[in-house]
């Protein structure tokens, strides 16, 4: 298996993991707060299903996604809606030319670089939702390690702080579990517990 196929396989695992997490959420948990400040479970799932998957598909085609466009509404079966979008996304990646140059920052970069951001978002939000809904699911630590390695190279300090995409880093010991380190890096408190 080449590097690209390995990365696509990681994305598939991240999407499968997210589908399992979403399928475990009970209807009465939709209003629970999450470690994503200001987002309850319903809002976060809507972001993942109705915005991230749509924009990830746009990115996988080499285009520029509009993250300001509102998320699509959730159907009654969140997990089925997610799986439909995830399957379509994987189809695009499986037929993509990973070395095609696409817009990136002020220049261009190979399309394959967009995969890692998608893996990281799925891994991080899977942790958010398991914490919010008190799931006992064991998350894939290799996905967290991969996401952390990528995001430590890519996340810039100017993206952190009040009214920014990411919170300030929360210090976590180097020997902490992978998802605790990932959460801290993305500005979450690894010890977060639902106030309800």
Would you write up a description of this structure?
It is a single chain. It is globular, with a radius of gyration of 16 Å. The protein is mostly helical. The longest helix has 22 residues, at 3-24. α2 packs parallel to α3, α2 runs antiparallel to α4 (113-132) and α5 (141-154) packs parallel to α6 (178-185). The protein contains 6 helices and 2 strands, in the order αααββααα. It has one domain (3-142): Up-down Bundle (Four Helix Bundle (Hemerythrin (Met), subunit A)), CATH 1.20.120. The termini are far apart. The protein has a two-stranded antiparallel sheet with strand order 1-2. The relative contact order is 0.16.
CATH fourth-tier homologous superfamily: dinb family like domain
**Average pLDDT level:** 94
Q: Termini, distance in Å?
A: 46 Å
Would you identify the CATH architecture? Up-down Bundle
> Which value, in Å, is the CA radius of gyration?
16 Å
Order of helices and strands: HHHEEHHH
Which range does the strand content fall in? under 5%
What is the count of structural domains? 1
Helix content: 40-55%
Shape: globular
Number of strands: 2
CATH class categorisation:
Mainly Alpha
The side-by-side strand order for the widest beta sheet comes to 1-2
Would you tell me the structural class of the helices and strands?
mainly alpha
Oligomer: single chain
Largest sheet: 2 strands, antiparallel
How many helices? The count is 6
Q: What fold name stands as the CATH topology?
A: Four Helix Bundle (Hemerythrin (Met), subunit A)
**Uncertain ranges:** none
């Amino acid at each position: 298996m080449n590097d690209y196929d390995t990365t696509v396989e990681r994305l598939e695992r991240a999407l499968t993991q997210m589908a399992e997490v979403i399928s475990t959420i009970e209807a009465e948990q939709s209003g629970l707060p999450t470690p994503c400040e200001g987002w309850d479970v319903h809002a976060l799932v809507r972001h993942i299903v109705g915005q991230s998957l749509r924009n990830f598909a746009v990115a996988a085609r080499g285009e520029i996604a509009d993250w300001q466009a509102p998320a699509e509404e959730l159907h009654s079966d969140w997990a089925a809606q997610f799986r439909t979008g995830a399957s379509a996304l994987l189809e695009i990646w499986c037929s993509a030319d990973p070395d095609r140059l696409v817009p990136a920052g002020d220049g261009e970069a190979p399309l394959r670089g967009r995969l890692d951001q998608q893996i990281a978002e799925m891994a991080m939000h899977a942790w958010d939702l398991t914490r919010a809904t008190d799931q006992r699911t064991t998350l894939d630590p290799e996905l967290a390690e991969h996401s952390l390695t990528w995001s430590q190279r890519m996340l810039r300090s100017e993206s952190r702080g009040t009214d920014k995409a990411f919170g300030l880093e929360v210090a976590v010991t180097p020997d902490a579990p992978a998802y605790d380190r990932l959460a801290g890096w993305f500005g979450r408190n690894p010890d977060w517990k639902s106030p309800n």
